[in-house]
Task: structure prediction
Amino acid sequence: MIIPGLMNMTRFKLFKSIQWKMVVIYFLLILLAMEVIGVYLLRSLEQYHLNNLSADLDSKAQLLSGFLKRYLDDSSKTKEINNLVKEFSVGKEIKDIYVLDPEGTVISTSEEDTSLLGKKLLTSEVAKAIMGKKGEGERTDPERNARLKHLAYPIKSGDKVVGILYLIASLENIYSTLREVKAILMGGTVLALGITAVLGFALAQTITKPIQEVTSRAASLAKGNFDQQIEVKSKDEIGQLAQMFNYLSLRLKETLGEISYEKSKIEAILSYMADGIVAVNTDGEIIHINPTAVKMLEVSPHAVGKKFAEVFKDVFGDIDFKELVSGDRHATTEHSVKKGDVVLRAHFASFKSQSGETSGVVIVLRDVTEQEKLDRMRKEFVANVSHEIKTPLTTIKSYVETLQEGALNEPEIAKKFLGVIQNETDRMARLIRDLLELSRLDYQKIQWKKEIISLNGIVKDVVSKLGMQIREKELKVSLKLHRDGAMVLGDKDRLEQVVLNIVGNAVKYTGRGGSIHIKTAETKELVVFEVKDNGIGIPKEDLPRIFERFYRVDKARSRELGGTGLGLSIAKQIVEAHHGNITVSSKEGKGTIVVITLPKVVNSN
Result:
């Protein structure tokens, strides 16, 4: 059932308002429901009446066939057959009754026209009846322009078909009733749709009116009027929406107040902090520069909005700005800047937006002039201390030589031990000379005696020299040395100094009964030396500073164990002078891992 002109409703621009959308949705839902119910009801009624008609015809056919069976065996009983046929043809549904012999020849009919008598009446239903089966079918009679129900019922005597009863009934009464029901459903659908439109409009208005009010207040809120409040009239979803709007308005007002406060606070901090701050966006434009940075870099305070490369060309000329904003950097980048006698250290760090994309770079400038002076004083102090220590060590060496001349009861053993003492004294003398040359390392004036040496041999010698300390602390030392000798090009004494410092630290800071794993390995281009212990470890906050001169993690314990705070700093400079690298990783209480990498050379042997 289709309502004429329904598609023309689009002319009224229904879908521009949620109110009209709701009305149309309700309208279509009711229409769909009525259509489904109507189709289902009509189909059910049609099937019901057809089933009733079939049952009625079947019962009449059984009854009539029972009467006819006694006369079909006797050809003289034609009159009785005709009387039965006329008697059963009275009624509205049954239009025609035919009695056929087993071959399908008409022997009696209820029609006034007797032209079919003696003729064969072969239809699909009759054919089934001849075979002993009931035949049913529906067809439209073109002459009567009516739908008819056909039933051919076999009349049996035992298993033998002795005749056929052929009934024809009209279906017009059934379909006339269905048309009336369809008209009633159409009227009901129109009435339901009208009521739905009115009620849907009223219901939609109760929903859309509060939404329109929220929309109007939201527009005012967007213009900066944060004192917007909506009266809550219900506890349903609309009421909850009004409550959330009021809460949103209040929180937005508070948040903007907090943002304004934080902005003022940050501006005050940036303006009066001792460090210079410069912020640059991804387009290379300066978006902020504080007064301290203006003073440090001697640039115009009106540099905001100008290009970074133009303003700081003479200051950061060798900095690749595109690399800084590429987003690949997670750590800060340092750069030293000199302005006359002032030394500045610039830290570059990219900052990201909420989506995770790089938005620009922040440059923090710090005056490190005094720190540089302290570093120079520290280097001078190393040179002075080294010079002062050399004299007592030389005296100790002379006493050891005296003892070697024979003052002990067992000369062979004494000579062996005194020889070791002499070797250690010589090594300490070389270490003192290295301390004297520490300043030369800084200025690259030292002379290196480089040769192709086996790092494995150095490691074995160092472990042998520390054997007594290892045994005293009952340490478990494992060596895993590369089979090719781990050949490097370097200064043997200074590399031994490095290995002795690293392994010595592991021995010092590993508790009794602990373990130390020493390994050498080779990659395609490098020789790797690794020392791993399960000692006291280094706190996370101290790791970045362990290579600083005179820096001690635990000052009291370091002095007790004889540490000077110079070992790792010297080791780092020696390794870097050999074009190598040294790294330290550690967890407090779980041990330390020191890894040194040096360029590999091919063993000529």
Q: What stands out?
A: The radius of gyration is 55 Å. The chain has four domains: 1-210, 273-367, 373-442, 448-599.
